[in-house]
Amino acid sequence: MRAPAVSRDLQHSAPKSLFGERRQPHVRRASHQHDARRALVDARDAHAVRYRPGNRDRCADHVRTIQQQLLRDDAYLIGLANADPDDLARTGRASATSTWKPTATDADAFCHHDFAAANVLSGIGRPEKGKSSNLWVSDPSKGLPQELTVELGRPADIGKIDLRFDTDLDTLHFSDVPGTCVRDYTLEVRSEGTWRRVHAEKGNAVRRRVHDIAPVTGDAVRLRVAATHGDPAARVYEVRVYPPGK
Predict the structure, then answer these.
(1) CB count, 10 Å around CB of 229?
(2) What pTM was computed for the model?
(3) Nearest alpha-carbon partner for 4 in 106, 90, 149
(4) Which of 21, 200, 232, 239 would you label with 212, given CA atoms 20 to 30 Å apart?
(5) What residues have CB less than 8 Å from 172, skipping those under 6 apart?
(6) Contact 148, 225 (CB under 8 A)
(7) pLDDT tens digits for 42-91?
């Protein structure tokens, strides 16, 4: 069983104030060849349009908003975590049916980290060497299916569920889907004490999935991982939950 490691990051030049800290942003390769520079331009332009009659230069006044939009679009900004006020899960609590607990015999750079369910609410969708894996990994010895539950803390109107899976960003995959990627899963919302299925997915092959669902009022969301592309454990980096229209 292999835990995530830190890849060779791609460095991109960008304003220091936008990315925080005094280093250039490090954006890891995504399975869909996500271009962080393109994401930055798209976020800037969208923000400029939203805040008319200003122009692009005025976007410097809204740096935090642009940063949060980049994080929501699955970019990685060093030292910055999810602070999206629209994310209903951000202040919630996560639990799982099982968790992988590495032992001293696990020869891996991340064996000293835990892979608890709470990691999916850390606000960071990549591993941070020496800090946290930011990843939930189920116990591989227990097999699949495994479940991850996010308690929102109070009933809320839910219309969108945003998931980030582990697609082994440390390795270039030219053809095969990474074995760590979640393939088949279902999503449920707990409404008035009853779990209701709101989505079923088969054959997923990408890291990020955003599901718009029929609006429902609920106080918890549950992800049930039925299969991966080969890995014996479910592996999830982040779960976000949004109201309808957000």
Answers:
(1) 18
(2) 0.78
(3) 106
(4) 232
(5) 29
(6) yes
(7) 665 665 556 555 555 565 557 888 899 999 999 999 989 999 999 999 99
178-235 pLDDT tens trace: 999 999 999 999 999 999 999 999 999 999 999 999 999 999 999 999 999 999 999 9
Token digits for 205? 């092959």
CA-CA distance, 157 to 194, in Å (whole number)? 15
Residue 34 has pLDDT above 60, yes or no: no
Give the E-state strand segments of the chain in sequence order: 10-11, 26-27, 93-96, 136-137, 146-165, 182-191, 194-201, 208-228, 235-242
Which amino acid does the sequence have at 202? K
CB 79 within 8 A of CB 22: no
The answer to whether 196 and 188 have CB atoms below 8 angstroms apart is yes
The strand pairing partners of 65, in sequence order, are none
Number of DSSP helices (H) and strands (E) in the chain, helices first: 3, 9
pLDDT value of position 20: 46
> Locate tokens 């599901």: which residue?
211
Spatial contact of 176 and 230, defined as CB atoms under 8 Å apart: no
What DSSP line would sit under 56-90, residue for residue? GGGGGGGHHHHHHHHHHTT---TT-----TT-TTT
Q: Which residues contact 8 (CB under 8 A, 6 or more apart)?
A: none
pLDDT above 80 (res 15): no
Q: What are the structural domains of the chain?
A: 10-72 (no CATH), 93-242 (2.60.120.260)
Biggest CA-to-CA distance, the chain: 60
Q: Are β-strands 146-165 and 208-228 bridged in parallel, bridged antiparallel, or unpaired?
A: antiparallel
Q: Which amino acid is at 176?
A: D
